[in-house]
Amino acid sequence: MSPGLLEGRPDVHLPYLILREHVIDRLYHQNVGYWQANLDGLDHLADSDRGELLANYLGLSEKQLVKAAYDMAADAKYELAASLLKWSSANFGDTESIAKAELLVYLKLMEKYQNTDPFKYILYSAKIGVQTPAIAATHRA
User: Fold this and answer.
1) How many CA atoms lie within 13 A of 4 on its CB side?
2) Nearest CA to 93 among 82, 85, 101?
3) Taking the complete model, does pTM exceed 0.85, yes or no?
């Protein structure tokens, strides 16, 4: 979109800026392909594989992994905590302790992105089944 199309249209500035980053990221990932320069994409490890690594090879219990997720959340490492919980639930199942930790972590992620990235906000709220409030329609005279 050329900058001239945005001129005199302040009502489209925010939606444009919000969508722009996601469109650029998506196009980049589509065009880079599966294999990247840093060797990402070569291995096809599932969440259960990562969970198995933590539990079976490193000997970490569900309780230890959930505690680590809470510690990460306390350090504002919410994305890392969410990944750890996803791997843990793939290995231990959807237990009550993992579900409680996920609720906290995803609420924190929603809080983090509520004003800056509506797509992440909506995806994180859907992950934990939290209904996002509808935006009230404003009527212009």
Assistant:
1) 0
2) 85
3) no
